[in-house]
Amino acid sequence: MTFGLTFEKLLLIGLIAVLIxxxxxxxxxxxxxxxxxxxxxxxxxxxxxxxxxxxxxxIDDVDWRKLDPRQYDPRRIIRDALLEEPQPATPEEAKxxxxxxxxxxxxxxxxxxxxxxxxDPEAT
Length: 124
Known about the structure:
- By secondary structure, the protein is mainly α.
- The protein has a domain at 28-84.
- It is built from four helices and no strands.
- It has helices spanning 7-21, 26-55, 74-83, 91-99.
- The longest helix is centred in the first third of the chain and has 30 residues, at 26-55.
- The protein is elongated, with a radius of gyration of 31 Å.
């Protein structure tokens, strides 16, 4: 990753740094900058090795480009869904949807011992 930096831009940044920092403080600034970059690299390597330890060897098999959220364009997803040909239902599915009568819904439903409302133990 070059972040759009060309040689000319780096040379201009260096020239501006020399003018702002001054020639007498430039070596110390360059040294502190190099230490900061070195610590950043160590931090990234430590993070990568910790992820590998915690997630196991399967982390190497993950295709990270497929998980990039920038590839999901909502316009493309909707266009593909609208242009997709509908899949014909199997005869069993067609019979099941046709033969099952739908009971009309009336206002309040009463619950009894055999007809209990759904219970979700994780909801409480």
